[in-house]
TrEMBL record:
Family: Belongs to the MAP65/ASE1 family.
Cellular component, GO annotation: microtubule; nucleus
BP GO annotations: microtubule cytoskeleton organization
Higher taxonomy: Eukaryota, Viridiplantae, Streptophyta, Embryophyta, Tracheophyta
Gene3D superfamilies named among the record's database cross-references: 1.20.58.1520
UniProt name for this protein: 65-kDa microtubule-associated protein 6 isoform X3
Positions of region (Disordered): 405-461
């Protein structure tokens, strides 16, 4: 107000003040409206941040009388509003980022995004009319927890897929899987080339993918078990073959029946069982190598025993000196067999000494088909000694019988019977048979033979007791003078000896 106008009347002063008051009143209303708008926005943002659903009416809460409507206070309110708006913007951006991250993780894990977000807050996925996005601290905490759970699940699934894929790759290499079969799961290889945080392909770590790989691993494991079982059986057969050739008892703990039962029951890993059998094979090979020298001598001894048995049967065959095909081969074999038989005692004693030395070195018994070899050889020596004594007694008894027969022939053969001399002996060297015909008799004097003292008991016996039978046979069959010569000379040739055949060096 101008100072000179103070002297004006009240009406004049009122007329001057009224417009000013009206103007101030309008400014106050405008200022009050500004405060109300700012207060409303502040309350709304504060409610959104706090998570309240009801917004307080800012106008009714203002105290018009006591409230400071100055520009300074208005600026403070505006500054506070801008800070809240900035915080709201940051929260909204954070919510958007969290929701996008949840969406990406759900895609990688193959989870339902809508259900996952709705479990946090429905407003995060879809906002209806009148409903704003929840930017409260609790909503952000729930989002952070959801992201943490999803990341943990991603880490677990990635590790599980890595472990299962590792088994798959090992089975592929072990089973020589073709490239066509591998191509069905080539996606797994591309996923595992990335780190866990870099996997963003939708469904890369879904349960379906892990189940698919696990199913393939299970199928290959079953196929591996079948093949491993076949391999275990094959290696066990090789072990038994090595043990059988060397007359070693194989380890019964990995027998075919037990191995098959253990594999089928799952009590043992086929790889461990195979490794155990491999170790047993190496052990059997080492033992077979250490037993080789003794085993070679055992084979020679067994072969000599077979030849001894054959020689006994051969000596009992009265047709062994016949002129048939192969007779000379049997005669040569008999001579060689006699040489082998004479060397058997030396070989047996050498075997016993070498076996005892082997047992001292290895600190265990030398078993042959489960029986100690030294016991077998000692028993054989006893049986052979008894057999030799039995043969000696038989020879002595036979020799005594031959002496008695010779004495009896000397007593009763000095006066030949006239009937015998007239009916059988002729001047021309022929003998008459019963029907009056004649057949040539063997000319014993013309055949070079050994003296009667060198003849075997069997040959003397045949000449004494089988004389008349021989005469009847000669009356119907032609004579074989070559066979007779061989029969008479065999004893002499056996005694005179032949080139010896040596056993293995003792």
């Amino acid at each position: 107000m101008q100072p000179e106008k103070k002297s004006a009347s009240l009406k004049e002063q009122l007329a001057l003040i009224t417009p000013l008051a009206d103007d101030l009143r309008v400014k106050k209303d405008e200022r009050l409206k500004q405060f109300a708008d700012i207060k409303t926005q502040i309350d709304k943002i504060t409610s959104e941040i706090a998570g309240y659903s009801n917004i307080v009416n800012a106008v009714s809460s203002l105290n018009l009388e006591d409230h400071d409507l100055s520009m300074r206070n208005l600026s403070e309110y505006q500054s506070h509003l801008r800070a809240l708006q900035k915080e709201k913007s940051e929260r909204i951006q954070k919510v958007v980022d969290c929701v996008n991250e949840v969406h990406s993780l759900c895609g990688v894990l193959g989870l339902d995004f809508d259900k996952t977000v709705n479990d946090v807050h429905p407003s995060l996925h879809e906002t209806s009319l009148g409903q704003s996005t929840n930017i409260s601290t609790s909503a952000l905490e729930c989002l952070d927890q959801a992201i943490f759970r999803l990341k943990t699940e991603r880490k677990v699934r990635y590790q599980k897929l890595k472990d299962v894929s590792g088994l798959l790759f090992e089975l592929w290499a072990l089973m020589d899987t073709t490239r066509e079969e591998k191509s069905k799961l080539s996606r797994i290889t591309s996923i595992l080339r990335l780190s866990e945080t870099d996997v963003t392909e939708p469904g890369a770590l879904s349960l379906e993918v892990i189940h698919q790989v696990s199913t393939e691993v299970e199928r290959l494991n079953k196929l591996k078990a079948i093949r491993m079982k076949e391999l275990v059986m094959k290696r066990r057969a090789e072990l038994e073959d090595i043990c059988n050739k060397n007359h070693i008892d194989p380890d019964p703990s990995t027998s075919a029946d037990k191995s098959s039962a253990m594999i089928d029951s799952g009590l043992v890993d086929p790889c461990e069982l195979l490794a155990n059998i491999e170790a047993q094979i190496n052990k059997a090979k080492d033992e077979a190598l250490s037993r080789k020298d003794i085993m070679d001598r055992i084979e020679w001894w067994l072969y000599a025993c077979e030849e001894e048995n054959w020689l006994e049967d051969y000596n009992q065959d009265y047709r062994r000196y016949s002129g048939g095909r192969g007779a000379h081969i049997n005669l040569k074999r008999a001579e060689q067999a006699r040489i082998k038989v004479t060397k058997i005692p030396v070989v047996v004693n050498t075997l016993i000494n070498k076996t005892l030395a082997w047992e001292d070195e290895k600190q265990k018994l030398f078993l042959y088909d489960g029986v100690r070899l030294v016991s077998i050889l000692e028993d054989y020596k006893i049986v052979r000694q008894q057999k030799e004594e039995t043969k000696k007694r038989a020879r002595d008894q036979k020799k005594l019988q031959d002496m008695l027969l010779s004495e009896k022939g000397t007593v009763y053969g000095s006066k030949p019977s006239p009937r015998r001399s007239s009916s059988f002996k002729k001047a021309n060297g022929y003998h008459a048979n019963g029907n009056g015909s004649v057949t040539p008799s063997p000319r014993r004097n013309s055949i070079p033979c050994a003296t009667p003292d060198l003849l075997t008991p069997r040959s003397n016996s045949m000449r004494q007791n089988g004389y008349f039978k021989e005469m009847r046979r000669l009356s119907t069959a032609p004579l074989n003078f070559v066979a007779m010569a061989k029969e008479d000379t065999v004893s002499f040739s056996s005694i005179s000896g032949s080139e010896p055949e040596s056993p293995p060096q003792c």
